[in-house]
Design a protein that fits this description.
Rossmann fold, N-(1-d-carboxylethyl)-l-norvaline Dehydrogenase, domain 2, 8-stranded mixed beta sheet, 4-stranded mixed beta sheet, 21 helices, binds nicotinamide-adenine-dinucleotide, binds D-Mannitol-1-phosphate
Length: 479
């Protein structure tokens, strides 16, 4: 099922080509034993790709559900779940048809989700629903005032209708599993969150407990929440990507995904319902995930957020363009110095994390100009992302008696961007807009309070961030 072609863009585009399907590329469908929520680009390039490569892949089919719209499920269902992963390196593309997704379902079909999660054959639920979708407040617990959470809780209490949040849908499906007596399984969070297994646990148990304390107790006793560090840069698919697959592979694929050749998956936790041999594709299972998670979230994702806000303010569009700007690069290097000073390795062995090599590899990965990773995509949902990417480094620097200026600069750049952006997307967009109607120190304090309440109460930090605003260009005047 794997095709290797180099320099696809040199091939002539074909016309009237057959569509990718299991007839065109014969491949058996494994039984559904993994249910996935959040059928986006990253699930296809990462968890589906690892499952496809496992030596026991034939035993582990994935049923993948979309989040907010049916489109991705409809497109993939047309191809019996098959899609192409395009690995885009500096030197050219290579193409692999991935067959692990055996069912692609509209997330609104909550009955199908409940049926599959309740099946005793299902052993794993994976999640890529984005950081903001867990609806956690800055205290790390479910924000029970968010309007969609309120609506889902009312709906669960009434016993009729379908939840709309992914967490609400999962809670309903786990209730069905409990009723069916189907036993334990693992929920594997693959979103870019620190301690993401605990985040998923707090969101799921928080919502279940607000509905039915017995269900929350059953989930605590039966569901293992696995933490992971996930890595593979996967931008949104473009029309040019569709054309490149068509030209190189000789079929039409309406759901290809383009990713960098690099991939990494580190997992920590129990799998009481079994799991595929993901280690065959390079996944690593560890006892203590925190050092790896911090390395990735601070160095990679932290630099991404910094480049996104600084880069957009300076008129750049992609990660590679922003990195080529000396002012942005310098900010990244300084942030990395601060982050590195606070990274400790497994069992206190920092050398194990190989930070210099990791930093050098990141510079090379970010500079891959053939991967057009748009800063606007990375910039979304900043109030949530900064809690993982900037706040821990700033707190650690201050605890060590240092200023934390480079981490504070990331937050200042986000503030400037929030006032300047034409289309600002964030779960707290309304509060951000209200804060931006204030001025001076009041504005900075209000914005910082949306990211971290304790930091907003520290006058020195507020002053530092206020001084750093404007570093990458003045934001537009407040509305
Ligand atoms: N793309 C990457 O390079 C990458 C790498 C590592 C980790 N991740 C993680 O995976 C997540 C998804 O990335 P992606 O590239 O697949 O994005 P995507 O936009 O392609 O897909 C996101 C999926 O989540 C659903 N979703 C988003 N917000 C939701 C909400 N509020 N409620 C319900 N469903 C919602 C969407 O409908 C979609 O199915 C990221 O947020 C990140 O945490 C992504
Ligand atoms: O996907 P997000 O929105 O959490 O963050 C944007 C990027 O930082 C992220 O997608 C990275 O590219 C990814 O985490 C690399 O593995």
């Amino acid at each position: 099922m794997s095709t290797e072609l180099q320099n696809a863009e040199e091939a002539e585009p074909a016309v009237e080509l057959p569509q990718l399907s299991r007839q065109l590329r014969p491949s058996a469908k494994g039984p559904v034993r993994i249910v996935h929520l959040g059928l986006g680009a990253f699930h296809r390039s990462h968890q589906a790709w690892y499952t496809h490569q496992a030596s026991d892949a034939a035993d582990w089919g994935i049923a993948a559900f979309t989040g907010r719209r049916p489109d991705a499920a409809l497109a993939l269902a047309e191809q019996d779940g098959l899609f192409t992963v395009v690995e885009r390196a500096d030197g050219g593309d290579s193409f692999t048809v991935v067959s692990s997704i055996v069912e692609a379902v509209d997330g609104a079909d909550v009955q199908r989700l409940a049926d599959l999660v309740a099946a005793p054959t299902t052993g794993v639920v994976t999640l890529t629903i984005t950081e903001a979708a867990y609806r956690l407040g800055s205290d790390g617990h479910l924000g029970r005032t968010a309007s969609d959470v309120v609506a889902d809780l009312a709906l669960l209490a009434s016993g009729s209708g379908n939840p709309t949040t992914p967490v609400g849908r999962l809670v309903l499906a786990l209730a069905a599993r409990r009723a069916a007596g189907a036993g334990p399984l693992a929920v594997v969070c693959c979103d870019n969150l620190s301690n993401n297994g605990t985040v998923a646990h707090n969101a799921v148990v928080g919502m279940a407990g607000a509905w039915d304390a017995g269900l929350a107790g059953w989930i605590d006793a039966n569901i293992s929440f696995v933490s992971t560090s996930v890595d593979r840069i996967t931008p949104r698919t473009t029309d040019a990507d569709l054309a490149a697959v068509q030209a190189a592979c000789g079929y039409r694929d309406n759901s290809p995904v383009v990713a960098e050749p690099f991939s990494n998956w580190i997992l920590s936790g129990e799998f009481p319902g079994g799991r595929p041999r993901w280690e065959d594709a390079g996944a690593v299972f560890v006892a203590d995930i925190e050092p790896y998670e911090n390395r990735k979230l601070w160095l990679l994702n932290g630099a991404h957020s910094l480049l996104a806000y600084a880069g957009l303010l300076r008129g750049h569009t992609t990660v590679a363009q922003a990195l080529a700007d000396p002012l942005c690069l310098q900010a990244v290097e300084k942030f990395w110095d601060e982050a590195e000073a606070n990274l400790s390795g497994p069992e206190g062995n920092a050398a194990e994390l190989q930070i210099p090599a990791y930093r050098a590899a990141l510079l090379a990965r970010f500079s891959n100009a053939r991967i057009a990773h748009h800063l606007a995509q990375i910039a979304m949902d900043g109030s949530t992302k900064l809690r993982m990417r900037a706040v821990p480094v700033l707190q650690a620097e201050r605890a060590a008696g240092r200023s934390g200026t480079a981490a504070a600069l990331m937050i200042a750049a986000w503030m400037d961007y929030s006032a300047a952006a034409d289309a600002f997307q964030d779960p707290l967009a309304d509060q951000v807009a209200a804060a931006n109607r204030l001025s001076g120190t009041e504005r900075v304090r209000a914005l910082l309070g949306l990211v971290d309440r304790a930091l907003a109460g520290d006058a020195t930090v507020v002053e530092l961030i206020e001084d750093l605003c404007g570093t990458f260009g003045e934001p537009a005047a407040s509305p």
